[in-house]
Amino acid sequence: STPFRLPVRLVGKPLGTRDQLTVYRFLLLVVGGRPLGFPDFALGQGLLVTPIQMVRGYAAFLNGGWLVQPTLLKNAPERKPVAPKRVISQAVTDSLLTALRSVTEEEGSGKKAKLEGYDVAGKTGTAQMVDSATGSYSRSRFLSSFVGFAIGVEPKLVIFTSLDSPRGIYYASETAAPLFRNVLQAVANRFSLPTT
């Protein structure tokens, strides 16, 4: 039995299983009895992505289009490294970096993520959560996030900040973006990251 009930249905074409999880080529959420489609996807609704998947994707942007296996532990046991795989061309990566940099500029939604002395790129996210009682998107519960990185520093680091149901102002531009800046400042101090 499942320890919790997810008030949505997942529809997709199974590709196989791994560790008791079915892997889908695509996922289609059915919320409130209505299948979600392309208009919903344009708003970022109906897409399921874990924080580690988001970080891995942004790491590919930072690595010039090369997808790498994430490492969660600094002193992880020795394992055979997985070779990076090119998933995005350099030209597309350059365009993405330009777009992600604009998010942290003065007119961007993530301007509060910018840290003086660093070239910061990233993206804000403000998502409605599904109301478990109604099976529809909540009008009062949100997930606010910011994912990004400083360009041109070593070591390369992707930072993901997320707030579940922030009180008061819930927009990521006002909540997760400033939190990202604070985390980046702490990381810059800890690792002595040179300014760019």
Q: What's the pLDDT, averaged over the residues?
A: 81
Measure the end-to-end span. Answer: 52 Å
Tally of alpha and pi helices = 4
Total strands: the figure is: 10
| Main sheet makeup | 3 strands, antiparallel
Protein structure class: alpha+beta
Shape: globular
Which range best describes the helical content: under 10%, 10-25%, 25-40%, 40-55%, 55-70% or over 70%? Answer: 10-25%
Overall radius of gyration: 18 Å
Which percent range describes the beta-strand content?
Answer: 25-35%
Taking pLDDT < 50 over at least 5 consecutive residues as the criterion, the unreliable ranges are 1-28
Order of helices and strands: EEEEEHHEEHEEEH
For the largest beta sheet, what order do the strands appear in spatially?
1-4-5
Question: Can you put this structure into words, describing what you see?
Answer:
- The chain has 196 residues and is α+β, with helices and mostly antiparallel strands.
- The chain has helices at 38-42, 51-62, 90-103, 176-191; strands at residues 9-11, 14-18, 21-24, 28-31, 34-35, 66-67, 85-86, 119-130, 137-151, 158-164.
- A three-stranded antiparallel β-sheet has the order 1-4-5, with no helix packed on it. It has a three-stranded antiparallel β-sheet with strand order 8-9-10, with helices on both faces.
- A hairpin with a 6-residue loop joins β8 (119-130) and β9 (137-151).
- The chain is globular, with a radius of gyration of 18 Å.
- Residues 1-28 have low confidence and may be disordered.
